[in-house]
Amino acid sequence: MPDLLLELFSEEIPARMQAKAADDLRRMVTDKLVAEGLVYDGAKAFATPRRLALTVHGIPARQPDLKEERRGPRVGGPEPAIQGFLKATGLASISEAKIQSDKKGDFYIALMEKPGRPAIDVLADILPVIIRTFPWPKSMRWGERSAKPGALSWVRPLHAITATFGLETEEPDVVKFSIDDIETGQTTFGHRFMAPAAIPVRRFEDYDAKLLAAKVVLDPDRRKDAILTDAKQLAFAQGFELVEDQNLLDEVAGLVEWPVVLMGSFDADFLSIPGEVIRATIRNNQKCFVVRDPKTGKLASKFILTANIEATDGGKAIVAGNERVIRARLSDAKFFYETDLKTKLEDRLPKFDQIVFHEKLGTQGERIKRIERLAAEIAPLVGADVEKAKRAARLAKADLLTEVVGEFPEVQGLMGKYYALAQGEDAAVAAACEEHYKPQGPADRVPTDPVSVAVALADKIDMLVGFWAIDEKPTGSKDPFALRRAALGVIRILLDNNLKIDLIAELASAAVYIRAQRIAQEIANLGGVAHVSFSRDSFVMGGFQVLSNDLSQALNAAHDADENRRKLRDLSLGILVGQLLEQEDPEGRPYYVSSIENSIGIKPYSFLPDLLAFFADRLKVQLRDQGARHDLVDAVFALGGQDDLLMVVRRVEALGKFLDSDDGKNLLAGTKRASNILSIEEKKDKRSFDGAPNAALYKLDEEKALAKAIEQVKGEAGAAVAREDFAAAMRAMAKLRPAVDAFFDKVKVNDDDAKVRENRLKLLNEIRAATRAVADFSKIQD
Fold this sequence. Notes:
Helix content: 40-55%
CATH topology of the largest domain: Hypothetical protein af1432
CATH class of the largest domain: Mainly Alpha
CATH architecture of the largest domain: Orthogonal Bundle
Strand content: 5-15%
Shape: flat
Structural class: alpha+beta
Number of helices: 28
Number of domains: 6
């Protein structure tokens, strides 16, 4: 069958767009072919800086013929309806139609045949549409044609279109169409500098080979392999080791059609700059790789660049040009670094009071105070020194105001560590400055030092609670504040470090402090001078205090004509006399409000269950990636109060192993049967069957045996759960299986005696209650 070759030849396509553009071209063309009934054997797309190319193999030479039956009017129907039917179907007379009978009578049926079109004609129709509607992130118009209506918009000026179609054994035909005076043909062009002449091509194999001869490597993967192999060999030959960078490799491969790897150098004096800054400078400005000394692991004063030409001087001029630019850029980086060292991190903190983090959540300075307080609270729970945790939390964001981070945002945190060490901070404090951002993705490492763990958890919890409090949660695919990543970060930190933390308490603690802080700011806005006094104990007791330093002066100056003064007076008096009003939200959960809480834009604490559910969803993702079942996570969280994520995971693991056994499968079936019967009868009677069964009403031995087994299992499973031995709890529950099986085999639940029926339903409820020691079995899928 024939093959298609399509090339769109243009000016340089941005490297970041090439891979998606190639995939879009393949997808759009093949989807259209299938929609037209042209099922192909295979397709592959390619991209270089100056071309998108596509080959589709095994396309049928023509579309299949289509046969269609169209139903017409009733036999003997109105003449206008019959004439309309003939016109729509192309029949010369009604005698050419068939008659078909059904329950409603006899109807005319037209058998229509639509012959398939040649595939080359179909391609000539669909390819221009695809080119005109191509989804570039950014596009442009150019030249005189740009002013014409319907002018082509493309990422860069499009110069030529190659489109051929034909059998391997024959001369292919050109798929003829034109776009903005660009006629299709079978001519492409080689390397811009080394082989710019026109090249006639026939089909893909011919096209690929001729481009290679013209110094164009069509396949981006082949270019990447060549760059990486040559760079490693060049570094090795000089006694160095290439610092690999996949993202940079992808970008560089999109900048060249004929990669030529060269090595340059820079002054060794620049090695006094942190290696990450050198790497960022060389990478961002010149798209070059760095190398290191394998003996020391430190960077060497060399770099590797990828040229797009085989220069006559062996690349000396290219290397020299890159060295000049890199020297200037490293000089700037060295100046920034040395300038940053002159100012201590702590001295930068006052500037954060003038930088808004979020209009509803206050300034960066306020956020730093919240993280510092929460880190101090978490520190004892993770084995961290409280003062070190507070110090690290206070300094962790300071490097955001440095010159180096301003130039290279990707080294934030890392530079904080370097600056903290340079000013003599404790090593744990310095490490936390870098690690509190981690993990930033599934491949990123998790902090393990207790101080880093405390600050990282505080940072992420404050972020999550804050945005939940102002109802800025992720929606669909939108997550502008990376809250899903923050939640997964909390989960990974807790699980990887085997940390038992009462998560809901820490979320609530952060929520209370955010609200208190915003109320204090409102006092300040109204003319008072306020600060927040908060402790864990005050939260446990259900309140917080907002104290003013000069309330007496503010109150003495207050008068009803001044609205702000009046509000301040009422607010201050209310808080001072402890008028924090205890109320309940619609779900019955207590929370506390003050006279201005409606004005600060912070939601009550009723959002915390929703935030905990968000953690449950993220945990499902985490466990699913590890092969666990998401319904088991649902079954554990359904118990309520399950905010110790480490214990949730251990329950899920034990439950999964138990359900893989015969005892587990049979007990699950019995428990679900009990739950289903209960649900039906509770709905019928409009009541629940709580409460202990009456032993005097047991008629059969199977009832007595089940009651005894439940009593034994409750004690054993409860004790095992209390000592967090969930495997033992499962083993205890397995003892229910024979008694449950025997009960359902021998006992009629809906007995004719109403009291016996009620008692047996209560016994079924006891089964459900016993298994809830570990999980809600009703949430588990069969």
